[in-house]
Every structure is written in structure tokens, then in C-alpha cells.
Amino acid sequence: MRGENLEGPGVRDRPGKERRELPAPLGKVERRRKPGRTDEQRHQLEIRILPASQRAPPPERSQLWTEHTRHPTLLVGLVMERDALYARIDARVDAMVQGGALEEVRAAHAAVASETARKALGFAELLAGDVETMKRHTRSYARRQLTWMRKLAGVHVLDVTGREAADVAGELLTLLALQPRADRSA
After folding, report:
1. Number of H helices, E strands in the chain
2. Residues 123, 139: contact at Cβ < 8 Å?
3. How far apart are the C-alpha atoms of 2 and 31, rounded to whole Å?
4. Residue 80 class from Cβ within 10 Å (0-12 exposed, 13-18 middle, 19+ buried)?
5. pTM of the model
6. What is the DSSP code (8-state) at residue 16?
7. What pLDDT, in 10s, does the model give residues 99-149?
8. Domains of the chain by residue range
9. CATH class of segment(s) 76-178
10. Which distant-in-sequence residues (6+ apart) come within 8 Å of 171 by Cβ?
């Protein structure tokens, strides 16, 4: 066996195929021969992922959700009391089911929906006719979103429990007016 380390974006060689980029760094690549095969079939690459301690550090970390952004950004998180949120989730799921979501999921399943569509929150639950499980999974997803949002740097959290939409919009406009504006002359 012959091994070589890839640095940066890796390239895969396959007989009769175009060279194509692989995510970097993938680690050690080994070629091995399989008995009883033609020369074309003998060359097969096996990619071994390096342990985390041996991987190169990632390039710069994403700046998408940090306080320092390229352009002035207003990041607002809307929250409400948990019981009120769960009641709204349950009502929304009921409205979706009454609006034909179950039939839509069945039609998508019959039309061989993509794997991505099948991963959508509620697809499997509705396909199984289990609306209560869909509500529970949606509430769990909302909890994860709230946990994630609390960790965001620079987020303005607005409690919308019992508030009218116009009142919330007014507060958002006030926050927006206080934001520094980007230089648009450049």
C-alpha cells in the first residue's frame, strides 16, 4: 500500500472519471489493489479522516453571527412566554392539518419527495398520521431555537407576549432608527 497526505483541497483520481475536488483536509489517502480485477478497477482510493488533533485548523471562523459584521446589522429575537408559545405552536399545527398539510405530505410521498423534503419538520409525523408527535417535535425545535438565540452576541430580545403586532413593529422601528447606517457613498 502506498499512502500520501493531502494538503488543502484534495483531488480524487478515478479511471474514466473527471478529477473532482474533495473537501479539505481529508487526511490520508491509500491506494490498494483488489485481487482478480482489471487494472482499471484495481485503483481505488480509500480516504481516512485524520483525528481532530492532526487536522489543520479551520480557516477564519464565520463572522455571520458575531457582533462584528461587515455592515451594520440589527439582530432581533422575538420571544414570548413558553405556555403562550406552545399554545400558538399547537394551534398552528392544527390549522396546517385542517388546511390540507396531511394530504400535501401524502402527495409528496407518492411523488417520491426528495430526501431533503422528507427531513422537513413534521413530514414523517404527518405521513404516519401522528399530529401530537408533530406538535411535540415542533415545541422541541422551538426550545432549541431559543437556546441558540440566547447565545447570539448583540441580539436584541423583544418579548411579544400579549402585545399587538403594531406595537412590536413600532419598537422594531425605534431600534432600527438607533442603528448606525452603512456608508452608501462607496
Report:
1. 7, 7
2. no
3. 6
4. middle
5. 0.58
6. T
7. 999 999 999 999 988 999 899 999 999 999 999 999 999 999 999 999 999
8. 2-54, 76-178
9. mainly alpha
10. 158
